[in-house]
Design a protein that fits this description.
The chain is of the alpha+beta class. It has a domain of 49 residues. The radius of gyration is 20 Å and the shape is flat.
Amino acid sequence: MLQSCCEDLTKMTREIHKALGVRKLLDKSFQVPSNMMIPEGKGNHANKDYLEIMSDLLKTIDNYGFDAPVTVKVQDTNKAQKGDQSIELKFNSLGAILKAQTELLIELKGDSAN
């Protein structure tokens, strides 16, 4: 490989590494108080990766509860088609809502018009 190519890849990798806070996460972990996730939980739960952080976030949301089910009506699911293609969705937990939102964002690939 060309030297300039390796330098560019190394620079991009360092930028990504810094933006994600990988070193800080691995060295110090992300501590979540156990009582936020489990009633009367003791101590902290140390998260070493983003999946664990997201899991603890969803446990925290479920622990504090909310009025279920939540019904969401999407007015028009396809702006490219004439008319109103509305849809109504029901969710039984905030975790399910966050999961659906995350899946939609991944599917849209950042297309903010949608």
